[in-house]
Amino acid sequence: MSSSEPSLMARMLEQLELRPGLNILEIGLGIGYNAALLAEIVGAQSLVTSLDIQADVVEQTHRLLKKAGYSEIGVVCCDGLKGFSPKAPYDRIIATVGCMDLSPYWIDQLDTAGLILFPLHHAGWTPLLKVNKSEENLITGSIVGISGFMPIDTVDSKVKIWPCRPDIQPVLTQMERLPLFDDLEELHSSKSLVWASFPKDFYYFLSIKDLRAFFKCKPPGYGLYDNSSGIVFISPSNKCTFLSGDMGLYNALKSIYREWKSMKMPSMGDYNISFVPISQKNRNNNYVSLIRRSFFDQVISIR
């Protein structure tokens, strides 16, 4: 049981566009602090329902909330992926767990004018997505930040889209060392913090264009990994590219970088993201990437 970083919680609450009277569903109870904040903002504890699949977490957090004067917040032990229909429809749904896909149950339980804020697992990290549902039942949104949450605990299967991140450290000295191509070095910040120096916008583009994308914190870097053809790994600190295996991986990474540059280097916030049920045909042919998840095709296009 844990609580999210306060600054991240504040940004997420701001993105929810809360106001008094809204009916809220929270996926991931934690210690209940976020649920209490939600109740204060919407003006009534009974308007907040928080779900968690772990019975011990629910029991302990319910006791703590009651002790703190928040006994009327709805605390329910169930699979958060399936939402909680008795209190639907919801004006806002917020997930504080990393999700493998948007849940169709959340969509069914969302008011037409409502919105969903959730961290979506994507090539090793969890961009924060904000989506809404139109009267025609179209689900669209955008990336509004970066988050870091534990994966959702659900009984449903989890589709693995990107490969497991390879263990680079033991083999790095044995890999072929190649120069950074084009002006890639300028993309890497000189900041000492690994995350601050990470080229988030290019990595997102890389990971939607090639599902072999991965990144590592130790040693810091990113690249492409193919179990049958090898690894290409860009190391900002070493100012070079390491290659083990097929030169085609190096060329593929270089080609994607040049495509990103030719598109004027879109940032993560420049994409329009739609979720189309896999049972339906995607009617948007002008997209950058289409990623098939468990329930939806994630269709990514430039705004």
From TrEMBL:
GO terms in the biological process aspect are:
methylation
Q: Where in the cell is it found?
A: Cytoplasm
Q: Which InterPro entries does the record match to this protein?
A: PCMT, SAM-dependent_MTases_sf
Q: Can you tell which superkingdom this protein's organism belongs to?
A: Bacteria
Main location class: cytoplasm
Which EC number(s) does the record attach to this protein?
2.1.1.77
Molecular functions (GO terms): protein-L-isoaspartate (D-aspartate) O-methyltransferase activity
A GO cellular-component term linked to this record: cytoplasm
Under the heading Pfam families, the entry gives: PCMT (PF01135)
What are the UniProt keywords, alphabetically?
Cytoplasm, Methyltransferase, S-adenosyl-L-methionine, Transferase
Q: Which PANTHER family match?
A: PROTEIN-L-ISOASPARTATE O-METHYLTRANSFERASE, PROTEIN-L-ISOASPARTATE(D-ASPARTATE) O-METHYLTRANSFERASE
Q: Name the family the entry cites.
A: Belongs to the methyltransferase superfamily. L-isoaspartyl/D-aspartyl protein methyltransferase family.
The name under which this protein is listed is Protein-L-isoaspartate O-methyltransferase
Organism of origin:
Adonisia turfae CCMR0082
Q: Top-down, what is the taxonomic lineage of the species of origin?
A: Bacteria, Bacillati, Cyanobacteriota, Adonisia, Adonisia turfae
